UniProtKB/TrEMBL annotation:
Residues 107-227 form the IstB-like ATP-binding domain. The keyword ATP-binding applies. The keyword ATP-binding applies. This is ATP-binding protein. Keywords: ATP-binding, Nucleotide-binding. Residues 262-273 have a biased composition (Polar residues). It holds the Pfam family IstB_IS21. Transmembrane segments: none annotated. GO terms for molecular function: ATP binding.
Amino acid sequence: MDSFKDKIANLARSMGKSFDTRQPVIDYKDMRKHYERQANEEVRQIQQRAKKQRVEAIHGRSDLNPKWTFANLVEDSDDVIEAVSIAQSFIAAHDDPAWRQSGSHMMLFYGDYGRGKSHIAGAIAHQLIDQYEISVLYRQLSTLQEMRYSSYDFNAQDNIGQKFREINQELLDVDLLILDEVCVNESVLKKNTQSWLGNLLRQRLVNKKNCILITNHNLNELEHALGRYCFESIREYDTYKVRFSGPSRRQSLGQDEADAPATSSRYQPNQVR
């Protein structure tokens, strides 16, 4: 009895075609699996490219310093080590959908100038963007105050009012808002600014949006500077308070390089490598 291959060969000869019986018969199931794997790989690559584009777009809108990463952070003081530990716990919590939907969370970084507060806040933001595509906006409060005051100039020709309204909407909508230099050089915010900032924080609280506030004040000074209404808005959040107490990371300008000793034990953590 002729085999299946022989029948195909006879059919080919009758049609004037050649058929090599040594060639394996095509297994269409295997072929289908092969093409499915190939298609899945192409879809995966398309998804990766799309995610990369989304992440790059979020980074571009965030206004973060690209050097503010954990890779550029030297953990050589207790306050920095503790801050990084809290930061990593905050980031890891985003893996839990229940935590993300449980309410609004705020990290409050406080301490003197040059302690690494902005750096660690930026490192948190960069990692959240990369891992979870969290939208982030970094702003200095003093800059927002200036724009807000300028928006009341009805004779201005630069559409500053419209620009501030657009920025204010971004402040409300973004997943993570980082406000730096909160109450810098100010013992007390003006009453209307207290109300505006308090309302902003309360609206973000209702919408389950997270915040990082960075200030040079201690907590008692900050409460006085923000006013009771605004500070009570902060109390409503699930708040992580992080105190930075180590020496300044910024280079002193008090001595010329030519006069500096050849070997120095001056404290220099958190410098970009």
